[in-house]
Design brief:
Elements (H helix, E strand, L loop, with lengths): L5 E6 L5 E8 L5 H12 L9 H8 L1 H7 L2 E6 L2 E12 L13 E9 L8 H15 L4 E6 L4 H9 L3 E2 L5 E4 L2 E9 L1
Parallel strand pairs: 5-6
Antiparallel strand pairs: 1-2, 2-3, 3-4, 4-5, 6-9, 7-9, 8-9
C-alpha cells in the first residue's frame, strides 16, 4: 500500500464530483503543506497563541522524516496540495496514545478553499486503508474540542469518542480521543 495513490471522489464547488488522489508527500510539497496546515489550524480558537504547536505544524520535513505524510491532490494538478495528514503507524515517533495494535493520524488539514469538498474524508479513508492493510485493530486520534467539523467527519466514518484517551497537555488545554475499530 505504501506509495500507491488512492482515488476518491470529491465534491466540486458546483456540486459535481471530481476525483482526488491521495499519495505520499514529496519534499517539493512540504512548503505548501506547511502553509495550508497553518492556515487551517489558525482558524481554530486558541491555536494562534500556541507558538510551539504552530512551529510543530509548520515542520513538515520533520514529520515526513518520521512517519508517512499523505496529501490529497487534484489528478489534473498533482502539484497543488488540497490537504494533508501525518499517518502514525503505531507507537514511536509522533505517536500520542497509539498502542502496539493501533495506528493513528495527526495534523489533518485541508486548505481553507477546499474545505467542505470531501478532501478531509479522502485523507482519513486513506489512513483507515493503511491501518487495515497492516492488520491494525484500530485507528486512533486526538483532536481539539473546538474542531467540531472534524469530529462530525470522524463520527460519520464510524469513529467513537474515547474519553479514557483524552489528554490534558497543559492546565486547561486538552485534546479529546476518538477510535475506530477495524
Amino acid at each position: 500500500m505504501t506509495g500507491e495513490p488512492l482515488r476518491a471522489e470529491v465534491a466540486g464547488l458546483a456540486g459535481s464530483s471530481r476525483p482526488v488522489v491521495v499519495r505520499e508527500a514529496r519534499p517539493a510539497d512540504h512548503a505548501e503543506i506547511a502553509a495550508l496546515t497553518l492556515a487551517a489550524y489558525l482558524r481554530v480558537p486558541g491555536v494562534a497563541g500556541e507558538a510551539d504547536y504552530l512551529e510543530e505544524l509548520a515542520d513538515v520535513a520533520g514529520r515526513a522524516a518520521a512517519v508517512p505524510v499523505l496529501v490529497a491532490v487534484d489528478p489534473d494538478d498533482d502539484a497543488s496540495v488540497l490537504g494533508a495528514v501525518a499517518y502514525v503507524p503505531g507507537p514511536g515517533p509522533l505517536a500520542e496514545t497509539e498502542r502496539p495494535d493501533e495506528a493513528g493520524f495527526r495534523m489533518l488539514a485541508v486548505h481553507p478553499a477546499a474545505q467542505g469538498r470531501g478532501v478531509g474524508r479522502a485523507l482519513v479513508e486513506a489512513c483507515i486503508a493503511r491501518a487495515r492493510a497492516t492488520g491494525k485493530a484500530r485507528l486512533v486520534l486526538l483532536t481539539l474540542p473546538a474542531m467540531a467539523t472534524a469530529q462530525r467527519l470522524y463520527e460519520r466514518l464510524g469513529f467513537r469518542r474515547t474519553p479514557e484517551r483524552d489528554w490534558e497537555y497543559a492546565p486547561g488545554h486538552r485534546l479529546i480521543g476518538y477510535a475506530l475499530d477495524l
